[in-house]
Predict the 3D structure of the following.
Amino acid sequence: MTPHAEFPTTSSPERAPPVQEAIPGFAPNALDETHFPAFENRSHLRYTEQNELHDVLCVGFGPASLAIAAALHDALDGSDPSLDLPHLQRQPPKIAFLEKQPHFAWHAGMLLPGARMQISFMKDMATLRNPRSEFTFINYLHQKERLVEFANLNTSLPQRVEYEDYMRWCASWFDEVVQYDQEVVKVMPEKSSAGEITTFKVVSRNAQTGQLESRRTKHVVIAVGGRPNVPAPFPSNHPRVVHSSQFSYISTKVLPDFQGRYSVAVVGNGQSAAEIFDFLHAHYPNARTRLLIKQEALRPSDDSPFVNEIFNPSRVSSTFARAPALRATAIADDKATNYGVVRLPLLEHIYETLYLQRISHGNTPAAAKTWPHAILPYRRVTAVSPSSTIKDGLRLTIRNQSPLYLSDTPGAQEQVEELDVDAVFVATGYKRDLHEALLGDARHLMPGGELADTKWEVGRDYRVNFRERSVSEGAGIWLQGCCEGTHGLSDTLLSILANRGGDMVNALFGQAKKGAGEEGLGYEVRA
Ligand SMILES: Cc1cc2nc3c(=O)[nH]c(=O)nc-3n(C[C@H](O)[C@H](O)[C@H](O)COP(=O)(O)OP(=O)(O)OC[C@H]3O[C@@H](n4cnc5c(N)ncnc54)[C@H](O)[C@@H]3O)c2cc1C
């Protein structure tokens, strides 16, 4: 591994990124690379002018793209034997990451105090691929001079706020190649004179100028994560209907007084719903909070060791190879590892919190109605309308099926209830289909694209399948984080990102190894 400050000797003359000045001391056109202390955390990837043809453009700079960046750095560094791509060291690729947020942030709307990672820190951006990488969580702790104290914590599950800081630290290495404030709006195929698609135009909206910008590239990686899922009947743009992804930003706007006597509903069965419910209890002592869940009880996530093996990097290939029906069944069977479930320590904490209300408010059915915080099982919201009792509030009409399951009276019927609230927080997950919209202009290249329901499909290496011979071998699009149906439950998580980042580097640049000379390279050679 080379020290932080050593650069490949083939680096091109540097220019400052035009939008952000993320690297302190970065001097446009006058970079003296011997003054490396100013670039202590500078990766081996170099800025490419916007108007140059790129080798790779990555859409989104979340953990999935960050893991690719880390793997690419390691490949250029020569520190990872699984990324034996010497031609890359001779000719660093022209790569850029386009991220819509103004800076690196990982689910910042849910960085609640005390929230923990649901995964071992060893499943960081690098360790499982290359424990010697700069980008391991351990190296981060070492650089931040907290290694010993972290060891004293005796946990493999850091707080989410620390893990975000770790990823932000990793991301800072790549400031030179990340364009923040760029929301990609479409990816358009471009034909060569021979009639084949050889490049793509990536169009983005610059949030600072409001203008559309475009960049051209041979390869595109779409790693945009999920879009908030706000199901019917909730309105998608009501100021008091807040998706969990926005919780930290908006909760104090709709509930500004921590001593306020608010009425609040939280909808959802999973980790985010439980965390929000718990947060409201802890921070709004006078509020009345109702957690509406579909089932009888909150259920624990299964992270027991045998089951957890489904998240092994090696499982991706066997999942992909499986017959589609078997694959779908297995994914459904294993859903309790990730969806609609809550980590056991949080469940136990919430149970104890609610138990304490039985002491302070009484433990009879009548007293239960006065509890400030309650979980209401077998509930579904069927309509949302303005409240007539709470100013600017909402009235939730709720189908209550709990009598069917929980009543002592035989033949009890379901009921309809109304709940007036100041705000409702919907923790109802994410949709992972943004790539379908971004690739709208490429549908004529999709096998079966003339049928409205056809979706993009990828191979094991995440490369999009186009119609035969429509896209050149030296061009392509890869999808990340939206391939759960073919690649398994780890696809949307952090579990395999270190290895997948390496797989992506091999998939994007490994083909170049086939060519003996530089003419065989699948990517643009730097001048
Ligand atoms: C609160 C919360 C906690 C979680 N905790 C864990 C955990 O402990 N362990 C675990 O394994 N998984 C966890 N997950 C799952 C989560 O999906 C992964 O941690 C991880 O975020 C996936 O990375 P990603 O890069 O695929 O997606 P994302 O993290 O969503 O990143 C996608 C990036 O693309 C950007 N983007 C989106 N659209 C565009 C566009 N049009 N143009 C440009 N940029 C765009 C986004 O701003 C974002 O930065 C958690 C999820 C949530 C919501």
Observations:
- The CA atoms of residues 123 and 495 lie 6 Å apart.
- The radius of gyration is 25 Å.
